[in-house]
Amino acid sequence: MANGWGFTHVSSTGSTNTELARAARAGANGTELLVTDHQSAGRGRLDRRWEDDRSGQLMFSFRTPVSDDVHVVPGAIAVAAHEAVIAAGVDAGIKWPNDLVVEHGDAPGKL
């Protein structure tokens, strides 16, 4: 991407979060967005298993270097995602700490 971010789209993966963590352990240290159409081994909070049903969920993980203020990141992501879906015309709320709530249920997984 022109702004220095990396962007990768894969049709399928075990877990976007696991893939970005693996890359970080291997030395990747830049900002990266990994998007997938399907993941088979996703995890939610408290290591709960999360699977998509291939019905159009948005599945991605984002990695960026952060400062000591890392504790503010989940809330900032929730607020940014909320503002984005509101701007797209979707009525949504935030269920803290990391879920968007939309008319037909939760939009989970902003870890």
Task: Describe, in plain words, how this protein is organized in 3D.
Strand 1, helix 1 and strand 2 form a beta-alpha-beta unit. This protein has a three-stranded mixed sheet with strand order 1-2-5, covered by helices on one side. It has helices at residues 16-25, 73-87; strands at 6-10, 32-36, 42-43, 49-50, 59-63, 92-95, 99-102, 105-107. The chain folds into two domains: 1-65, no CATH class; 67-111, no CATH class. With 111 residues, the protein is of the alpha+beta class. The protein has two helices and eight strands. 13% of the residues are buried.
What would you say about this model in short?
This protein has two domains: 1-65, no CATH class; 67-111, no CATH class.
